Description:
The protein is globular and about 55 Å long. Helix 1 (about 10-25) packs parallel to helix 11 (about 195-220), helix 2 (about 30-55) packs antiparallel against helix 11 and helix 4 packs antiparallel against helix 12. The protein contains 15 helices and no strands. By secondary structure, it is mainly alpha-helical. The protein has one domain (about 25-320): Na+/H+ antiporter like fold. About 80% of the residues lie in helices and about 0% in strands. It has helices spanning about 10-25, 30-55, 55-65, 65-85, 90, 95-105, 115-120, 125-155, 160-180, 185-195, 195-220, 230-255, 260-270, 275-285, 290-320. It comes from Curvibacter cyanobacteriorum.
Amino acid sequence: MARSRFLPDNYTFAILGTVVLASVLPASGAVAQGFEWLTVGAVSLLFFLHGAKLSREAVLSGLGHWRLHLLVVASTFVLFPLLGWALRPVLEPLVTPDLYLGVLFLCALPATVQSAIAFTAMARGNMPAAVCSASASTLMGIFITPVLVGLLLQRHAAGGDPLLAIGKIMLQLLLPFVMGHLMRPWIGDVVKRRASVLKLVDQGSILLVVYTAFSAAVIQGLWKDMPLPSLLGLLLVCAVILALALVSTTWLARRLGFSKEDEITIVFCGSKKSLASGVPMAKVLFASSAVGAIVLPLMLFHQMQLMVCAVLAQRYAARAQAQLPAGD
């Protein structure tokens, strides 16, 4: 019997199962470190394979797509802070004041890199532009986020080490991409023929990110340190902000005449917030006693965006597949 179109697909169930697994058996200690390294390796492999798949013309096109990059940056560092500030009178009563400070901190963060690009790949969006936009957002966030935190939370932010963050991004993401692209003349055709391998790496890297991120959240007391009403209120706040970001980026992309591939990139790169960048920044910008409440909204938003965007990516991919000529 055919599955109802209203039911989630197998991959969405896999993500939900990964969340449950991380809640029941979270990775900790040496095991967590092992999963972190495995995740880094999977994401680096993903970038390597996409670098080998993309043509030189596509990469140059991605670098020069300034309208798309401008819209993604505006969504990340203008739209989100405006939503957090403008909706405060409506949403703050749903949570504690400390938790809403965490929501404002969430709105000031840069976009994710690995999951945004992986979802763009799954949905058959503009991959070169996604690589450029997501990486640029993370680099810009090193300097912009502390300023936004000072404006939104009325606190003075201390500076981090931008060179360390830039070096990490270069090593884990851009270097594998460049290496794969340089090796494209020798392995490009093989990567194209092995599309199933690329899909496995795409989806597998997302599952690893979900498990490692949710394990860390559970170990830090995600389900223990919050009363149920506050948790439900925080879930609603995160859902409202995410929904508004997704609707706004989709509407703007269509209104401004972007192609479907560009729309996918704008939606997935312009609607996400980075847990990997957010937690270290919180430790620098806030007192140790406040970090727990500050990062909790980010943890919940991060899991929510992964699950919602997994559904969206599958729908985009299914639509693109349905539009292909018969036999392709």
